[in-house]
């Protein structure tokens, strides 16, 4: 089994690329959905988040209001550090279990889609890193157009993450997403073909 860590900044097209990989037969684990598990009302993670950031981050049905929480942490690096210290280790444990279960089922390719793969220290869960990359100015425009965020808030969210220059140090594959969708698909097709060729060569090497 090969585990791809798919990472990239906010609005860089990770979900689009992971869907393309899913259509090729990969099984995708979305870190964002795992994060929802950590926030389940009444869970240890939920209790620690509420104790740390106060009842204002609790919304309807006792769920964490991620919008309200985001307004706090994306403007305050120390608050973000505290939140990450609560959530990242719990998320890693859940994802490690999921990866192991898929390995035992004989799943050939798993994609772990995670914006904070590197800074959360989840690299030990993956075999190689694929990066969706684009200029921060393009990401800001996407956040403003797609999410309706004010430009200042869009920049704050991008600056709360490490940049692509740092991410590229870990990436085996870099997919440029500052281009038409068809061009992104061509890059994914080529990277997948290369992955399959490498996997086939590894199997052959093991036999011989």
Detailed description of the structure:
The chain is α/β, with parallel strands linked by helices and 208 residues long. The protein has one domain (2-207): Rossmann fold (3-Layer(aba) Sandwich). The chain is built from nine helices and five strands; from the N terminus they run E-H-E-H-H-H-H-E-E-H-H-H-E-H. A five-stranded parallel beta sheet has the order 2-3-1-4-5, sandwiched between helices. It is globular and about 55 Å long. The protein starts with a strand and ends with a helix.
Question: What is the strand and helix layout of this fold?
Answer:
Elements: E1 2-8, H1 14-23, E2 27-30, H2 31-38, H3 44-53, H4 66-73, H5 77-105, E3 109-113, E4 128-133, H6 136-147, H7 151-159, H8 164-167, E5 171-176, H9 181-207
Parallel strand pairs: 1-3, 1-4, 2-3, 4-5
If you average the pLDDT, what whole number results?
94
Low-confidence parts: none
Outline, from the CA principal axes?
globular
Total DSSP E strands: 5
Largest sheet descriptor: 5 strands, parallel
**Proportion of strand residues:** 5-15%
CATH architecture: 3-Layer(aba) Sandwich
CATH superfamily: P-loop containing nucleotide triphosphate hydrolases
- CATH topology annotation: Rossmann fold
Order of strands across the widest beta sheet?
2-3-1-4-5
Distance between the termini: 19 Å
Number of contiguous helices: 9
Order of helices and strands: EHEHHHHEEHHHEH
Roughly how many Å is the radius of gyration?
18 Å
How many domains, in number, for the residues? 1
Structural class: alpha/beta
State the helical fraction: 55-70%
Which CATH first-tier class would you pick?
A: Alpha Beta
């Amino acid at each position: 089994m090969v585990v791809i860590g798919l990472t990239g900044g906010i609005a860089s097209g990770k979900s689009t690329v992971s869907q393309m990989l899913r259509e090729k037969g990969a099984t995708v684990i979305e870190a964002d959905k795992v994060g929802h598990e950590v926030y389940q009302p009444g869970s240890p993670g939920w209790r620690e988040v509420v104790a740390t950031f106060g009842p204002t981050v609790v919304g309807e049905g006792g769920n964490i209001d991620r919008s309200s929480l985001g307004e706090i942490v994306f403007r305050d690096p120390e608050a973000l550090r505290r939140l990450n210290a609560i959530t990242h280790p719990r998320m890693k444990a859940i994802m490690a279990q999921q990866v192991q279960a898929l390995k035992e089922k004989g799943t050939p390719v798993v994609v772990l889609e995670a914006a904070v793969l590197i800074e959360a220290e989840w690299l030990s869960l993956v075999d190689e890193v694929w990066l969706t990359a684009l200029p921060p100015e393009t990401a800001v425009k996407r956040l403003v157009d797609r999410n309706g965020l004010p430009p200042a808030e869009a920049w704050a969210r991008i600056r709360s993450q490490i940049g692509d220059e740092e991410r590229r140090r870990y990436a085996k594959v870099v997919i440029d997403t500052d281009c038409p969708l068809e061009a992104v698909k061509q890059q994914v097709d080529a990277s997948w073909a290369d992955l399959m060729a490498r996997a086939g060569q590894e199997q052959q090497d093991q036999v011989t």
